[in-house]
Amino acid sequence: MAEAEEKETRSNEESTDDSEEDESEEEPKLKYERLSNGVTEILQKDAASCMTVHEKFLALGTHYGKVYLLDVQGNITQKVEISPVKINQISLDESGEHMGICSEDGKVQVFGLYSGEEFHETFDCPIKIVAVHPQFVRSHYKQFVTGGKKLLLYEKSWMNRWKPSVLHEGEGNIRNVKWRGQFIAWANNMGVKILDVISKQRITNVPRNDISLRPDMYPCSLCWKNNLTLIIGWGNSVKICSIKERHASDMRDLPSRYVEIMFQFDTEFYISGLAPLCDQLVVLSYVKEVSEKTEKECCARPRLDIIQPLPESCEEISSDALTVRGFQENECRDYRLEHSEGESLFYIISPRDIVVAKERDQDDHIDWLLEKKKYEEALMAAEISQKTIKKHRILDIGLAYINHLVEKGEYDLAARKCQKILGKNTELWEFEVYKFKEIGQLKAISPYLPRRDPVLKPLIYEMVLHEFLESDYEGFAILIKEWPGDLYNNKSIVQVVVDHLNKDPQNRTLLRTLAELYIYDQRYGKALEIYLTLRHKEVFQLIHKHNLFSSIRDKIVMLMDFDSEKAVDMLLDNEDKISIDKVVEELENRPELQHVYLHKLFKRDHHKGQRYHEKQISLYAEYDRPNLLPFLRDSTHCPLEKALEICQQRNFVEETVYLLSRMGNSRSALKMIMEELHDVDKAIEFAKEQDDGELWEDLILYSIDKPPFITGLLNNIGTHVDPILLIHRIKEGMEIPNLRDSLVKILQDYNLQILLREGCKKILVADSLSLLKKMHRTQMKGVRVDEENICESCLSPVLPSDASKPFSVTVFHCRHMFHKECLPVPSTMSPLLFCNICSAKHRGPGSAILEMKK
C-alpha cells in the first residue's frame, strides 16, 4: 500500500488489504485488514497508546487519556475518560468483567465493568503498567499490580481495604508486566523477573542482552505461551523460558521452581511485540532502512514475521511488510502486538492505525492460488474442503480454469476438464460447446461430450458431426461408431454422408460409416450391401445379429469369396434358413467353393449331403485329392463304380486299391500295389487287413524272385503266416539283403509268441484257481430260510405253519428252494439232485447245498 493512500478517501482505505508482500510464489501465512468503523473515527482525532484484547471485546487506550470499549469489528460500545494524558496500560481479567487502567499522570483505576467496586489512586510518578489477577472476578483473588519506580501488589483485606506491598524496587522503572496463573513476570531496566504469587518467591532473573539500548525506546515484550512458558523479546533477542519444578534433593534454600531457557536466538530487526502461534512465534519488528534519496536512516514499514524457534537459531516461515498509517514517524515503542488466543487473531497497534492479522483459511488459500493462476491446485483444494469453504464454489473455480486453459491454447486439456467440472449441467455443456465452436475447436471437445446422463440437444451432436465431416472423415467415423445413434437425427446425417459420397463414391471410410448409420436406422439390407462391397469383417456378425439370411440367398458367392471358412460355418449353422440344396445351387458355377461347402458338410454329418456324394468324388479329385481317400472310406453313399472309374482315369493308385478291395477284388488291388506302387510294406499291410490266405500266397509268389520283397516279407510275415512256407521257396544261391537280421527277427518273434502263450497260461491258471476258491467260499456259506420263502415247484411256503410237524426242504446253491417230496426221485445212475429251474434255463445245474429235515 503506497504513501499516497493517505490522500485517498477513508472508505477506500478501510476496504483494502493493508498488507503487501513481494511478488513471489510463496503463499503468505496470514491475511490482514484494518480495524475500521469506530476506530477510524477515534484515530482521526486521537492516537492509540495501548490496547488489550478479550475474546468478547477490545479495549483501546489513547494519548488523550480516553479508554474505548470496542466490538471485534471496531464499533464503539463504551467510552471512559480517565485522564487528560496518555493511557499507558489496560488490563482485563479472564472473565472480561474487571478492568485495570494506568496513565502517564500517575492515575490507577481498577473497576468492574458490570459492578460498582472501584479502586482509584493517584501516584506521584507516572505509572507505566497495571495488571489485574486473571481470576479477579473471584473473591479470593482480588489482587492487582502496578509499576512505576517500584512494583506494588495490591490485595483486598478482610475489611475491603486495599493493602499494598512492594514486590520489587531499585532497578529503574517497571516497563512491562504479564500475569498468568500464579506467576507474574515483569521487566525493568536490568532484566526480567518472575514471581510466584502464592509462595511470594522470586524464581529467576533473566538479564537483558544489549544494555546499550534505551529501555524506554526499545521496551521489553513479554508473552505467556501457557501457564509455564514465558516468551521474552528485547531489542533483537528472543528467549523462550520454561518454569520447572526443582527436585526435592536440590531445594536447600532455593525456590521450589526454577527457569530453564529452552530457545534463545537473535532476530534481524528490533522486536516491538510477539505472540505464540502453535509451536511457532509471531514477531512484530521495528525496521530502519537507509533512504535512497537522502542516504539517511529512516523508519521503514514494520514487519510481521512467523518464526520457527530452533535450539540455537530460528527459521523464518513467512515475513510481511505492513503499511500502517504514519509508519515513517513511528519508533519501536510506538508499536504493540496483542493477540486473541481463541481465534489466532493478532492486532498490530500503532498510534494512527490498527491492523488485524489472522491465519489464512481455505478460502484465502484458494484466492491466492487463483491469483497465481494455479487453477488445478485451487480446484483440488476446493474439492477437498467443499464443506468448509464459504466464499468459493467448485463450479466457479472450474469454469475459470477452463477459460484459463482456452486462453492458453490448451484446448484438449480444457475439453477434458469439462467432463469433471461441468458434470450433468446441460446448460453449461451447451454453452461450452458453442464457445469451442467460436474458436474453431469443436474437434477438441468432441471426445468428451456426454452421451448418457445427461444428454445434450441433438443439434449439439449434429454440429460436431458436421464439423468432422467437412475436414476429417476418420474422426467422423470414430464418432459415429462410439456415439449411440439416438443422440442425433440419424436421417439428416445419412443424407449428408450420401451427398459426400456422390462426390467421392469410392471412399471406404464414408461407406463404412454409412453402413453403421443404416444399422442404427435399422436398414440392415443396405448396410449388408455396403459391408459385402467393402468385404467388411463384421458382415457375418451383422447377418447373425439381425437375422439377415433371407437377404443373402443370392449373395452366397460373395460371402464365400470374402471368407469361405466363416461363410460355410454360418451356412451350416443355419440350414433351416438357407437349405443345402440352395447353397449348392448358388455355388454351381464355382465348383471350388462348392467343394469347400460340401466338404465341411460331410465332416459334420456323413449322411446329410448324401445326394451330392457322387458329385463330391469329382470335386475331391479336382480340388482336394488328399481328402479323397478319407471321403471314400467314410462315405456309405457314393457309387463305387463311378468312383473307381474316376480314380482309374486320373491314375489315383491308392484310391483305386481301396475301391478294388472294397468291391471284393482284393487280388487286383494287391497286384496294383505290387506293380504300381512297388511297396512291399503297403502290400503286407493290405494282406494283413484282408487276412486272406490266398492273398498271402499271391504276395509270396510275386515276391519270390525279388530279394527286397523277400526281406520285407521275412520281417513282417512271422505273426500271420508260417515263415517256413516262404523260406522253403527261396531259390538256392539267391542273395537276400539283411537275411541274417530277418531270420533273427523271425526267431525273436517266435520266442515272443512262446513267452506270451506261457504268460497267458499262467494268468489263466491263477485266475481259475482264484475263482474256484471264491466259489467254494460262497458255497460254504449258509442260506437263510424263513416263512417268506416258497417252494419253486408247488409255490407253497417251504416251512410249515405248524413248526411241530416234521418237514424236509432242499436248498440249492442258486438259492431256489423245494420241498423234498416235490423234487423228482433221483435215478440210480445219477444220485445227485439238480435245480429244475436252472437246468431248464441252461444256466448250469445247481447241486443241493443244504437239506433241512425235522
From TrEMBL:
Ranges of compositional bias, category Acidic residues: 14-26
Entry GO terms, CC: clathrin-coated vesicle; cytosol; early endosome membrane; Golgi apparatus; HOPS complex; late endosome membrane; lysosomal membrane
Molecular function (GO) terms for this protein are: zinc ion binding
- Domain Vps41 beta-propeller stretches: 30-359
Enumerate the subcellular locations listed in this protein's record, separating them with semicolons: Cytoplasm, Cytosol; Early endosome membrane; Endosome membrane; Late endosome membrane
What is the recorded membrane topology of this protein?
A: Peripheral membrane protein
For this protein, the record's CDD domains field holds:
RING-H2_Vps41
**InterPro entries under this entry?**
Beta-prop_Vps41, Clathrin_H-chain/VPS_repeat, TPR-like_helical_dom_sf, Vps41, Vps41/Vps8, WD40/YVTN_repeat-like_dom_sf, WD40_repeat_dom_sf, Znf_RING_Vps41
The CHCR repeat ranges on this chain: 568-712
The principal localisation class reads cytoplasm
Sorted alphabetically, the keyword list is: Autophagy, Cytoplasm, Cytoplasmic vesicle, Endosome, Golgi apparatus, Lysosome, Membrane, Metal-binding, Protein transport, Transport, Zinc, Zinc-finger
A Pfam family:
zf-RING_Vps41
Describe its function. Answer: Plays a role in vesicle-mediated protein trafficking to lysosomal compartments including the endocytic membrane transport pathways.
Please state which protein family the record places this protein in.
Answer: Belongs to the VPS41 family.
Protein name, per record: Vacuolar protein sorting-associated protein 41 homolog
Q: Which organism is it from?
A: Pelusios castaneus
Species lineage, top-down?
A: Eukaryota, Metazoa, Chordata, Craniata, Vertebrata
